[in-house]
Specification:
InterPro entries: Methyltransf_25, SAM-dependent_MTases_sf
CATH superfamily: Vaccinia Virus protein VP39
Distance between the termini: 29 Å
Helix content: 25-40%
CATH topology: Rossmann fold
CATH architecture: 3-Layer(aba) Sandwich
Largest sheet: 7 strands, mixed
Strand order of the largest sheet: 3-2-1-4-5-9-8
CATH class: Alpha Beta
Protein name: Methyltransferase domain-containing protein
Radius of gyration: 16 Å
Keywords: Methyltransferase, Transferase
Structural class: alpha/beta
Pfam family, one: Methyltransf_25
GO molecular function, one term: methyltransferase activity
Length: 194
């Protein structure tokens, strides 16, 4: 999946914005749910935040406080750093412990992790954890390997999970639901890990 996300960097925001290959998709309520999700991110209390697998920084740019981001893709980091000039961005392993942050934020990363990776993710040092991911739609499965096609015609197998807000909250050990929409869910755990 590393090669896939590096190659996808230039077209990644098409998914958020309904452009390119996503222009023809029927996604009723998508833009309203995305706007509500952004409002939720903006309403977070300012904190020293580390955005794990920050991608292009689509949501990172809305995080209040002192923000750092890490992603394994140099191209994603380049886009994120241009978007959030006051942030600190680095290429690296999102599952490597980086102490010193009050909040770990992650958007659409947790749903790609296998069981061992999820355990490592949840053990990372932090005071607060905020996870944003894809909502489980009535017509979809909760877990799948998808064949994804990029604009250059290349195909890539990608592991993906979708969540109900309650299910995701239960999986991370409790906390609170921050957003429960038709396309996106967001949860917060305030159980410190040191």
């Amino acid at each position: 999946m590393r090669a896939y996300y590096e190659k996808r960097a230039a077209e990644y925001d098409d998914w958020w914005l309904g452009a390119g290959r996503f222009e023809e998709r029927e996604r009723p309520g998508w833009y309203e749910d995305m706007s509500a999700l952004i409002d939720m991110v903006l309403a977070l209390t300012p904190a020293r935040t580390l955005d794990l697998a920050c991608g292009t920084g689509f949501l990172t740019r809305h995080l209040p406080g002192e923000v750092s981001g890490v992603d394994q893709s140099p191209s994603m980091i380049e886009i994120a750093a241009a978007r959030r000039k006051d942030g600190a961005f680095e290429v690296g392993d999102a599952l490597a412990p980086r102490p010193g942050f009050e909040r770990i934020f992650s958007s659409h990363f947790y749903g790609h992790l296998d069981a061992d990776q999820r355990e490592a993710f949840l053990a990372l040092p932090r005071d607060e954890l905020v996870i944003v991911d894809s909502a489980l739609r009535p017509e979809s499965v909760a877990e799948d390997w998808q064949e994804r096609v990029l604009d250059d015609g290349s195909t890539h197998s990608v592991y993906k999970r979708w969540f109900t807000a309650a299910g995701l909250l239960d999986e991370i050990g409790g906390g609170e639901v921050l957003h429960d929409g038709p396309w996106f869910v967001a949860v917060r755990s305030s159980i410190p890990r040191f």
